[in-house]
Amino acid sequence: MAQEEVASSGAIEKSSELLGIDINGIGEKIVEAVSLYGLSVLAAVIIFLVGKFIVNLITKAVRNVMEKRKVDASLVGFATSLAHALMMTFVIIAALTQVGIETTSLVAVVGAAGLAVGLALQGSLSNFAAGVLIIIFKPYRVGDYVVASGAEGVVEEIGIFTTTVVTLDHRTQIIPNSVATSGVIENYTKKGIRRLDITPGVSYGDDIRKVKKILEDIIAAEPRVLADPKPFVGVAEMADSSVNFAFRPWVKVGDYWDLFFHFNEQIKLRFDEEDITIPFPQRDVHLFQQK
């Protein structure tokens, strides 16, 4: 066997001499390359694996925190995916740098691409940022009755980019979040109660003390009116054609519209029963005969 191996080795050496190949030199170069780049490649692999592990841990932790705070599920998925992609980009760049690959141009390309995407999606990113602020600070929630940027109704859905509001006559209004947060937001639901304002008018010939007592009785007969804050009835204005009263009971938000229509009906019926005149604008026209 030993003689066969020696013969085979001698044959290889003779073949390499005929072909002009320096086997010993190639072997030395391979060993030199492995010693020169092997540690760098190994370090790059370690950086990538450890970095990926840390990124996954951070992503999972962020997701858990957002879910515990009951952040919108769509926002959780979008935010964690975006954070994971950004962190993995840095890990890959660090690994490539370790093996001696020039990453300056790569970083520049990524930056330029990010800038281009940011400019192209400027409006969408603005809506996204506004959506994040709405979800975090909660100026309104699903089910709240709001007035925001000209839209009025019940909030049906708060998305990442838009808010959906359903009006009282069931029209759906979709508002970009940046528009919804750019002005004053009136939230009628947040406090749980709401003041009902009606301004009944009577003629100047009616007894205002009697009118006030009738209005107070209407409020007292309705059990859905809150005792605190205390309801208010009083003369609000002596207008051109009528004496206007302020009729202001406090009610729960869910009872507002039912009681609004109920009280208007009751006021009219009681005024008719008590012969209280509800005036309407009148104009006296005087005709003079020209001489």
UniProtKB/TrEMBL annotation:
One of its GO terms (cellular component) is plasma membrane. It is found in: Cell membrane. InterPro entries: LSM_dom_sf (IPR010920), MS_channel_1st (IPR049142), MS_channel_C (IPR049278), MSC_TM_helix (IPR008910), MscS_archaea/bacteria_type (IPR045275), MscS_beta-dom_sf (IPR023408), MscS_channel_2nd (IPR006685), MscS_channel_C_sf (IPR011066). Residues 199-278 form the Mechanosensitive ion channel MscS C-terminal domain. It comes from the Bacteria. Residues 89-122 form the Mechanosensitive ion channel transmembrane helices 2/3 domain. The chain crosses the membrane at residues 34-55, 75-96, 108-137. It is a multi-pass membrane protein. GO terms for molecular function: mechanosensitive monoatomic ion channel activity. Keywords: Cell membrane, Membrane, Transmembrane, Transmembrane helix. Pfam families: MS_channel_1st, MS_channel_1st_1, MS_channel_2nd, MS_channel_3rd. Its main location: membrane. Residues 124-190 form the Mechanosensitive ion channel MscS domain. Belongs to the MscS (TC 1.A.23) family. This is Mechanosensitive ion channel. It comes from Pelagicoccus albus.
